[in-house]
TrEMBL record:
UniProt keyword Cell inner membrane, yes or no: no
Residue span of region Disordered: 291-311
Keywords, ordered alphabetically: Copper, Metal-binding, Oxidoreductase, TPQ
Cofactor(s) listed in the protein's UniProt record: Cu cation
GO terms of molecular function: copper ion binding; primary methylamine oxidase activity; quinone binding
Modified residues annotated as 2',4',5'-topaquinone in this record: 461
Entry GO CC: plasma membrane
Similarity comment text for this entry: Belongs to the copper/topaquinone oxidase family.
Cofactor annotation comment: Contains 1 topaquinone per subunit.
Protein known as: Amine oxidase
Taxonomic source organism: Tricholaema leucomelas
Length: 753
């Protein structure tokens, strides 16, 4: 064979190979570029979602300017205000009445006026009080209206106000002044003069209405680590009820099981050998209990989640759309995340889905621990939702959204990137089947879900708030708890209240109870509450009369009143409980959404407790009531500091009214008991520490709506599953080369501290 023939054959072979590659690459219309694919056009709402939009910084500034010029009283910036001053405590959106909003959204009515809710502390008045004003219209306010009595049935006494940052600063200064009375004790117990100790508040603050006396717990403070695991055994009780700061005083001191009058008495007891002192050495930074510094150098990175051809969801203003879903999102600075007008395939399912409260109730044999019942809404669940860390708190390529708030200041603040939105591959089929009989085929659908997430840091704990939207039409709500446990100094019978987790550290037992509001509008506002559960009946075999069997049957019911629909915590509840529309699906069943709760809640505070009514929402795992504008929330920020006469008592919402063919609200409690253990150091892990609930379609559709998902996979035994046009999974080797261009990592979460 001569050289010319060899060259000709080589050229033909190369041409053949090139042609085959082109055929394989184009066969089945597989993706050929890494360009972002345009989203399927979602229905535009024409800006209607802005009726629920959080206030902008500009609107907040206008409200401050209006109040300063219209109230006729001197206002001091809350960041500098003494208890005897008047100040603006907070400004937030005044959510319009539901009837007005629906006339606007559904009937072409006028847009409701945009208004703010301003909370003011009036300390410089003959009768100090807290007053709430509705201010509007925005963006140029022209009126204000006192709504305090309308909202709460009376005035709000001044002692119920949340403690401000300035008040805490003044208390800390008082404690430091008090500690100077015990220099020899502090040097012996803690190798300290007191100035390097961290001070942690407890709550509530006393035993009866009007009290404002708080136990403060002292800890060793090592920069760069969580001090919560290093109590020194010293706690002080501060009476800060007077509006005159000079009248504040330390009224009791506790150390290692002993109660003394003040720090001077503590010093005297130490000097005279009447005090058992536990001598603590200052820990080294690398050995401090609870350090989160990595102990191993970085290695190869783990899996990276990204969208090969760009996000498949769209975020515009305060609205996100994704494969038939439409959700309007926002953030209350006190109660945290809130969603409105949740629609699937154009139909509203939920009008409002919002977090209401997070309770942490502790046990201990130290005064601070045993008296602690934190109601986190009074501290600011939304306010303390800081910037999320890209690539850890949320996927690196998620969409990050800023949130703005005005609390304890006349200047708005921004928590940048404090809410994230992303599509998540759950790495499990939503549904699938492998057929090995009659005909051979495989069919399945990936469980991809849209996630809206924010994370609140509330003193020691971090709560991860997730709202997830599935292609099956289900809504999933979940909270994970992480962060540091709270602790007491280990003494006496301390392990009756938890586990030892350090040399002198007791991880104190506590329960987490979380409360949500779910205003379901299932195929309209008028609904009923239906139940279904299982029973067995003993019957004769139809084909063999001499024998019998236990036959499973479905017991259906309908709840008629609020009392019937209030299910105490821990009591049996129907396994199927659904909000039902009067309208029927194709098969003759009421179009419904089922509430499915996943919770391990601890026992509720006994109703005999004088402060129980303040958290009476915790009595119920589920309660369904008529929706009322005058019952917008199950709690109040004022309940924390006066739980003995609560400003809002949820138990009063349940008064046996009918729940048949009414606009209904489900109030859902979830939670868990946490007995800290060695593995909670340095941090509590999210694994096993999550609870929540589902809203699942139940005969709402005529079939599973995910059949219309573009992510379905099907191929038969006769087909070539390796062909991109037959099986979209076969396209992945091509799309996998579409690695995204990642934005540089930046973090500015410490700016507002």
């Amino acid at each position: 064979m001569n050289v010319k023939t060899v060259l000709v054959l080589l050229v033909l072979a190369l041409a053949t190979i090139f042609a085959l590659v082109c055929v394989l690459l184009t066969r089945g219309k597989g993706p050929s570029t890494c360009q972002h694919q345009p989203l399927q056009e979602e229905d535009s709402d024409g800006g209607q979602s802005l009726v629920f939009a959080d206030l902008s910084p500009e609107e907040m500034v206008q409200v401050v300017r209006y109040l300063r010029g219209s109230l006729g009283v001197a206002l001091v910036d809350a960041s500098r205000a003494k208890p005897s001053d008047n100040c603006i405590a907070s400004i937030d959106l005044q959510v319009p009445a539901k009837a007005e909003v629906l006339r606007f959204l559904d009937e072409g009515g006028a847009r409701p006026p945009r208004q703010a809710l301003a909370v003011l502390y009036f300390g410089n008045q003959p009768e100090p009080n807290v007053t709430e004003y509705v201010v509007g219209p925005l963006p140029t306010p022209a009126y204000h209206r006192d709504v305090t009595v309308q909202r709460y049935g009376g005035t709000v006494p001044y002692h119920r106000r949340p403690v401000t940052g300035k008040e805490y600063m003044d208390i800390n200064a008082l404690i430091q002044q008090e500690l100077r009375k015990a220099p020899r004790f502090l040097a012996a117990c803690c190798e300290s003069d007191g100035t390097d100790l961290a001070i942690l508040t407890t709550a509530p603050r006393g035993f009866k209405s009007g009290d404002r006396a708080t136990w403060f717990v002292l800890f060793q403070n090592m920069p760069g680590t969580g001090y919560y695991l290093s109590p020194v055994g010293l706690e002080v009780l501060v009476d800060h009820s007077s509006l005159d700061i000079s009248q504040w005083a330390v009224s009791r001191v506790f150390y290692n099981g002993q109660y003394l009058a003040d720090a001077g008495a503590l010093e005297d007891a130490f000097v005279h050998g009447l005090l058992e002192v536990i001598r603590l050495e200052k820990p080294q930074a690398e050995a401090v209990l609870g350090s989160m510094r990595p102990r191993q150098p970085p290695r190869s990175p783990g899996p990276l989640q990204f969208e090969p051809q760009g996000p498949r969801y769209s975020v515009r203003d305060n609205r996100v759309t994704f494969q038939g879903w439409s959700i309007t999102f926002g953030m209350n600075p006190n109660s945290g995340p809130r969603l409105f007008d949740i629609r699937y395939r154009g139909k509203r399912i939920v009008y409002e889905l919002s977090l209401q409260e997070a309770l942490a109730l502790y046990g201990s044999n130290c005064p601070g621990g045993m008296s602690t019942r934190y109601l986190d809404g009074s501290f600011g669940i939304g306010r303390f939702a800081y910037e999320l860390v890209r690539g850890l708190d949320c996927p690196y390529t998620a969409t990050y959204v800023d949130r703005h708030y005005l609390v304890e200041s006349e200047t708005p603040k921004t928590n940048q990137n404090s809410l994230c939105i992303f599509e998540h591959d759950a790495a499990i089929p939503l549904r699938r089947h492998f057929s090995d009989s009659q005909s051979l085929y495989y069919g399945g659908l990936r469980r991809n879900v849209l996630v809206i997430r924010t994370i609140s840091t509330l003193i020691n704990y971090d709560y991860i708030w997730d709202f997830m939207f599935h292609s099956s039409g289900a809504v999933e709500v979940r909270v994970h708890a992480t962060g540091y446990i709270s602790s007491s100094f280990l003494h006496g019978q301390g392990t009756d209240y938890g586990n030892r987790v350090g040399p002198h550290t007791l991880g104190t037992m506590h329960l987490h109870h979380i409360h949500y509001k779910v205003d379901l509008d299932v195929d309209g506002r008028s609904g009923r509450l239906c139940t279904q559960d299982m029973e067995y009946e003993l019957v004769q075999d139809p084909w063999s009369k001499q024998n019998s069997m236990e036959r499973l049957y479905l017991r259906r019911g309908r709840l008629q009143t609020e009392d019937e629909a209030a299910f105490p915590l821990g009591a049996p509840m129907p396994r199927y409980l659904s909000f039902a529309s009067p309208n029927l699906n194709r098969w003759g069943h009421p179009r419904s959404y089922r509430i499915q709760i996943a919770s391990l809640a601890g026992k509720h505070l006994p109703t005999s407790s004088p402060m129980e009514r303040a958290i009476s929402w915790g009595r119920y795992q589920l309660a369904v009531t008529q929706r009322k504008e005058e019952e917008p929330s199950s709690t109040s920020i004022y309940n924390q500091n006066d739980p003995w006469t609560p400003t809002v008592a949820f138990a009063d919402f349940i008064n046996n009214e009918t729940i048949t063919n009414e606009d209904l609200v489900a109030w859902i409690s979830v939670g868990f008991l946490h007995v800290p253990h060695a593995e909670d150091v340095p941090n509590t892990v999210t694994v096993g520490n999550s609870v929540g609930f589902f809203l699942r379609p139940y005969n709402y559709f005529d079939e599973d709506p995910s059949v219309d998902s573009p992510d379905g996979v099907y191929f038969s035994g006769e087909q070539d599953s390796a062909v991109c046009g037959t099986n979209p999974l076969a396209c992945l080797p091509l799309t996998a080369v579409c690695a995204p261009h990642l934005p540089p990592f930046r973090y500015r979460g410490f700016l507002n501290l």
